[in-house]
């Protein structure tokens, strides 16, 4: 697989990683056996970056990833996250960036993963009540203790990224980026490139919508989180489906799937970007990775962006209650 370096001083990775969140929660029924087989197949095909978080499950996804990589540690870069706090209400979210919470969360993640060291440790969401300098200072202590190799932030605003990077080098910034989530192009990507920070694009297939398999809201399981996403609701659903059909037409011209075309578009945005499409099935994994064989030239990119221009998507990417947690 093509290799990409994550940030100026970060690890060398396969150009496409694997998001593991849906293996344990949010996207309908789960199957641990198939999920572990998917991780093993990903490693066989050259994927090196596996992305998880303590909040997925909660906690179950780290345990699953830990089981999957046992005996394969030298072939994988493990990224996990802390900072989102969940309680009895499955839809409620809090955040914590308190130094003591950073330390206890790291120790708990190491236990669940069965690791001595986490390769990339992200603050999942910024806590506005705690100075970012205090949070990253505690994260930097974990590096000096050998518990963490590299530090990352997720959904942080440019000013926050700069303040954090001044305390300790930030290796990776993770945020949503796809044909229909292009806000990072305004300030976040330029900031990362100025500072030498790698960019990890989550949901590069628009939470599966751009893959073309979702045709009706009823295609989503009753407990699928996407039923609560504005982009999958009401009139937004049909308008966004119309957008996907245009992408499908372009993909058909290249004898590719819309997922492959959408993922190839993300890969074409720069060699410093590593997308982490999520899947819990081997067939979808193999389909996604064939995007690496699709080289898009400037004319191809222009045609894609003509049918899916910035701002074409309808609806916010999160429900109103959780939008304040992003880009801060």
Descriptive account of the structure:
It is a single chain. The chain is of the alpha/beta class. It is 36% helix and 14% strand. The chain contains 10 helices and 12 strands. It has helices at residues 32-44, 60-69, 99-113, 132-144, 158-167, 188-195, 234-253, 258-267, 282-289, 298-307; strands at residues 3-5, 12-14, 18-19, 49-51, 77-82, 84-85, 94-95, 118-123, 148-154, 172-176, 198-202, 273-275. An 8-stranded parallel β-sheet has the order 3-4-5-8-9-10-11-12. The protein has a two-stranded antiparallel sheet with strand order 1-2. Helix 1 crosses helix 2 (60-69). The two termini are 34 Å apart. The relative contact order is 0.15. The model has no long low-confidence stretch (mean pLDDT 96).
SSE sequence, one letter per element: EEEHEHEEEHEHEHEHEHHEHH
- Beta strands, count: 12
Question: Biggest sheet: strands, sense, closure?
Answer: 8 strands, parallel
**Helical content class:** 25-40%
Our estimate of the beta-strand percent is: 5-15%
What's the total helix number?
10
Task: Give average pLDDT, whole number.
Answer: 96
Q: Supply Rg.
A: 19 Å
Silhouette:
globular
Instruction: Name the poorly predicted regions.
Output: none
Order of strands side by side in the largest beta sheet? 3-4-5-8-9-10-11-12
Task: Name the structural class.
Answer: alpha/beta
Terminal residue distance? 34 Å
